[in-house]
Amino acid sequence: MTNVTVVPPSQSDHRSVRNTDDPTRRDGLRSRLTPLLSFCRFEVGRLLRSWKFLAITVGFPVIFYILFLGDHTAGKVVDGTVPWRVYLMVSMCSFGALVAALNAGGTRLSMERASGWARQLRITPIPAWSYVATKVVASMLMVLPVIILVEAVGAGFGGVRLAPTTWMGLTVLLWATSLPFAVLGVFIGFLVTPEAAFPVVTGLMFVLGYFGGLFNPVDQMPGSLQFIAHLMPNYHQVSLALASVDGHTLALSHWLILAGYVVVLGLAIAWKHRLEEARGLA
Amino acid sequence: MSSLAVPLPGAEAHLHPRPSALSFQGVTHRYGSRVALDGLDLEVAQGEVLALLGPNGAGKSTTISALLGLIRPQEGRIEVLGSDPRRSVADGRVGAMLQSGSGIGLPPGVRVDEALGLVRRLYRRPAPHHQIVERADIGALLRRRTDRLSGGQAQRVRFAIAIAGDPEVVFLDEPTSAMDVESRQGFWRMMRDFGNEGRTVLFATHHLAEADEIADRVVVLNRGRVVADGPGATLKAAVATRRLRFVTDRPDPSELSEIDGVTEFNVCGTGVLIDSLDADATIRDLVRRGVPFRDLEITGAGLEQAFVALTGCGTADRVLKAVTPPSASVGTVGRDVW
């Protein structure tokens, strides 16, 4: 059969070719979590090192904030009570979160899937869902500094003054309500080819941003557009954020719609995954 | 010389003296209406280095995807190391180098050591870092960025990643397709060493030379079925097969079977079809016996023809079994068939 000397391991001892004395051997719950933490660290490290990514995610909302906060807006208020500089800061936090999440998930994930790296990770011991989960977590970790930076520009350049606890609450709220964008980004990454990813992501950024009232308050839109705006996740995120700034109750309907986005997009990712598996493309 | 179509008694036992590492039982997989695997049966023993040879679309990649649990075939049963393929992958006992499609199969924007480090941390019992680096010969590449590697270098890094989890079984899907001749030789040397440690290696290729040189055993796939299975030397003999067609008034099957070099023949009316391992000898013998042949036509049979043709023309499907002694199977150079 062969003239090559092979030392066959016996059946009971079939793992003998492995290195059993490896010092990196780990056990228990830690052994299940460590790989996922490593994966997250790896992903965030990659994102942070990509200067193009950082320039886009941080640049857009900060530039828009500065541009739209002209002197002529000094006495402008939204919804009767909210000063324009606060409204714009919250809007640009929402926009920054959207841009960060769509770029981190959509464009890069799409490229990564086309390159075969995603498949390579699928045949490591980590479960299939953890790939998606890690991407969502990494996107969320990228969103947080963008929110904080826009808030800093709001406080420094825009002169927004809030109590420390309000800043804290606002930051946490904006961050938590960015989850739909992170899931949306990953869904786009699963759905489109790398060539299509850039236009799709850019288009979504501005469509969701515009119709979500980020550049132009929803109460100043015509009625038909207001109806569309009420379907946009950014509108509900901004509504919750403004309510928290003003100390109003955080209406359940906003939370439910945002949660609905997460659930529907999560199911869509699972569906796309199944489909690819059936076609042997996964 | 080996008998081409008749499995010898005991051939099966000779092939599988060791516990089974991979097992396919009647596995059928369709992509829509296209059949990729058609009732595939295959057993691979632990420690075996096996080449899957076949033209594009023969089912090689589907076989590997199924072994990794990336697809679930509609029918049949697959076991990897005695478990469900996904179980074996989840237990970190399997490594693979897949076809990378449009990209290089590595994450862009990171260094080689970071990518390798990540993959090692995804396994509970990875191979030691220095061992992987040495085996895949990537010491000089560790600080390089993955998007700045040549084709051959990228493949070495991908091999390192495939063996990072210290797997018992490794699958490689056309691993040398992007390499020049020199990188190819180095790569196969690396893989051969890896297989010599008693690990099971299955690789897909469409180069007979590679299959013959590296593998203990070569399995030829076509249209999702095994059409030949044996040591490379046996297959190379089959490549030497010539197909003779001629017309004769009174074909005599008993005489045809005795003609020199004939391994297979078929009579349809006055038409005769002969597969011969030595066309010259066959023709000399036909003349010597005074067989009144006319319209003689001789065609060289490539591997594909040699085996696929065996399954055609009303004859039952046949599987070539390993019967040749081990002497000539390694170190000889065949030729590319496809």
Query: Beta-sheet strand percentage of chain A?
Result: under 5%
**What average pLDDT do the residues of chain B reach?**
79
Strand content of chain B: 25-35%
Topology as H/E string of chain B?
Answer: HEEEHEHEHHHEHEHEEHEHEEHEH
Per DSSP, the total helix count of chain B is 12
Task: Determine the structural class of chain B based on helices, strands and strand pairing.
Answer: alpha/beta
Overall number of strands of chain B: 13
For this entry, what is the oligomeric state of its chains? heterodimer
Please report the number of helical segments of chain A: 11
| Overall structural domain count of chain A | 1
Low-confidence stretches of chain B: 1-14, 309-338
**Main β sheet profile of chain B:** 6 strands, mixed
Termini gap of chain B? 25 Å
Derived structural class of chain A: mainly alpha
- The succession of helices and strands of chain A, N to C, reads HHEEHHHHHHHHH
Largest sheet of chain A: 2 strands, antiparallel
Number of domains of chain B: 2
Radius of gyration of chain A: 23 Å
Largest interface, C-beta closer than 8 angstroms, per-chain residues: A-B, 52 and 74 residues
Describe this structure in words.
The complex is a heterodimer of chains A (282) and B (338). Chain A is mainly α and 282 residues long. Chain A has one domain. Chain A contains eleven helices and two strands; from the N terminus they run H-H-E-E-H-H-H-H-H-H-H-H-H. In chain A, strands 1-2 form a two-stranded antiparallel sheet. In chain A, helix 3 packs antiparallel against helix 5 and helix 10 packs antiparallel against helix 11. The N terminus of chain A is likely disordered. Chain B has 338 residues and is α/β, with parallel strands linked by helices. Chain B folds into two domains: 226 residues, P-loop containing nucleotide triphosphate hydrolases (Rossmann fold), CATH 3.40.50; 59 residues, Alpha-Beta Plaits (2-Layer Sandwich), CATH 3.30.70. In chain B, 29% of the residues lie in helices and 26% in strands. Chain B is built from twelve helices and 13 strands. The radius of gyration of chain B is 22 Å and the shape is elongated. The relative contact order of chain B is 0.16. The chains are: A mainly alpha (282), B alpha/beta (338). Chains A and B meet through helix 1, helix 3, helix 4 and helix 11 of A and strand 5 and helix 4 of B.
